[in-house]
Write a structure and sequence with these properties.
The chain is mainly alpha-helical. The chain is built from 23 helices and 4 strands. The N and C termini lie far apart (54 Å).
Length: 455
């Protein structure tokens, strides 16, 4: 079966793939089936219920993607487009009833951004008010990672809230295109498409494995950038034939392109930190097992404003008194940083104040290492803190992130201290370079070693 023209593959039988997605969609849209799921899981596992409903929207968007890949006429895809609208309305209706997590709701439109949905809507001449209603019924989650998506959707709903984070460095880079002057956008989109292609081709041997292609190949066109072009009315004449751009879809869209859309500036920087409390509470008396770690606590959390540092201390004391900490001896760095992380969570240090005092990640989780690095840099209010994840995007291991982060910090007169560990996790924190020797002495008093990252 011939596919829509693309660089990698000219034919494939998508019959099974489409049948599988259609079956998933039909089953989830069956109210009797969903009632069965609800009765089975509503009490003990409500996420199973919300996840099923959410997947109906993803399946509807996937059907558009795979029919496009198969080479269907754009006009013939109108019923598929309407299925997405129906699914979204259904999900919105049950989201409040089943108390959908706000982060889940914020991500619900993600499959539509990553499919031909929005450009196709314009080609099919879907009324703008229909699209506005579609977007409005699935609001953003401020605590989520969909800032690029939400900013782009402000072209339809100007008052839409913005998530505080991006899904990754690419989305942050694409967000800069939205803020760029219209005359500069074509060059930036072309550059982003080139990078998308380069990233794909690094993994081409993996993605073109025959078993992968047989059931699970959606094509390699960059739908998010096509969505950006369509919603901002970017002039795409300079890259219309780009091999990673859905050319025929966007040629059809081009007939309806209007004047470039310029959004009002965002009020306040995304990286601005909420104000810390002015008054510091009195510190509670340390439990016995915490007493040897007092100087370590003060050293690690010195990056915080004093009022937050003292509040965190009190949360740590209370957590160590809880049943969860009864078996914790607090005799090694891993125990201390684990306890500190639990105290941060109990206090809401990041959720409420957007700050972190330390880093604790699995040894294989370089993505989380980059995210924590950004948090620590923002906590210290360092220049370009919010851009660090882009600067470190080529670091593929946690140790590589640590070394890069330390180098980046030293250019700003700070340093990263990575604590030696006997298990599969890494811990670390930041300090001014002028305090580095004092930090070493404090930890050395407890015979705690360090990973060498400043090489």
């Amino acid at each position: 079966m011939l596919l829509r023209a693309n660089k990698f593959k000219q034919e494939a039988d998508l019959t099974k793939t489409l049948a599988d997605i259609e079956n998933i969609y039909a089953r989830i849209m069956d109210e009797a089936y969903m009632q069965e799921i609800y009765e089975r899981h509503a009490v003990d596992n409500p996420r199973a219920v919300t996840g099923k409903y959410a997947s109906s929207l993803a399946a509807a968007a996937d059907l558009i993607t795979f029919h496009y890949l198969r080479g269907d006429e754009l006009s013939a895809m109108q019923p598929l487009h309407e299925q997405v609208l129906v699914s979204a309305e259904r999900v919105a209706n049950v989201a409040e009833e089943f108390a959908f997590d706000s982060v889940v709701v914020g991500r619900l439109l993600y499959p539509c951004i990553n499919s031909p949905f929005f450009p196709l809507a314009i080609v099919l001449q879907v009324d703008r008010t229909v699209l506005q209603q579609f977007v409005a019924q699935l609001p953003a989650c401020v605590e989520g990672k969909t800032r690029f998506q939400d900013r782009l959707l402000q072209t339809l709903i100007p008052q839409r809230a913005l998530a505080e984070h991006y899904t990754g460095p690419d989305r942050k880079r694409w967000a800069a295109i939205i803020e760029a002057p219209p005359e500069k956008r074509p060059t930036l989109v072309k550059k982003a498409l080139d990078k998308w292609g380069a990233d794909i081709e690094k993994q081409v041997t993996v993605h073109l494995d025959e078993s992968h292609l047989r059931d699970n190949w959606p094509g390699y066109w960059c739908y998010p950038l096509a969505t950006l072009v369509a919603l901002l009315n970017v002039d795409d004449s300079s890259f219309i034939d780009h091999e990673y751009y859905p050319t025929d879809l966007m040629r059809a869209w081009g007939k309806y392109r209007g004047a470039p859309v310029v959004l009002p500036p965002i009020d306040g920087p995304a990286d601005a930190l909420p104000a810390a409390p002015e008054k510091a509470p009195k510190r509670q008396k340390a439990v016995k097992k915490l007493q040897p770690w007092t100087d370590v606590f003060n050293t690690v959390t010195a990056v915080l404003p004093p009022a937050l540092q003292d509040r965190l201390w009190n949360c740590l004391v209370q957590w160590l008194k809880s049943e969860d900490a009864e078996e914790l001896a607090l005799q090694c760095p891993e125990d201390f940083f684990y306890s500190l992380s639990e105290a941060e969570s109990e206090m809401g240090l990041y959720d409420t104040y957007r700050r972190s005092s330390a880093l604790q990640v699995d040894w294989k989780d370089s993505d989380s290492a980059r995210e924590f690095a950004v948090r620590l840099a923002k906590t210290a209010v360092l220049p370009d803190a919010g851009e660090y994840d882009i600067a470190a995007e080529n670091c593929t291991t946690v140790v590589e992130v640590f070394k890069h982060f330390d180098s980046w910090l030293r250019q700003r007169n700070w340093c990263f201290i990575a604590v030696a560990s006997d298990n599969d996790s890494y811990q670390g924190f930041i300090a001014p370079e002028t305090e580095e020797q004092n930090v070493m002495a404090t930890f050395g008093a407890l015979n705690i070693g360090f990973l060498k990252v400043n090489i």
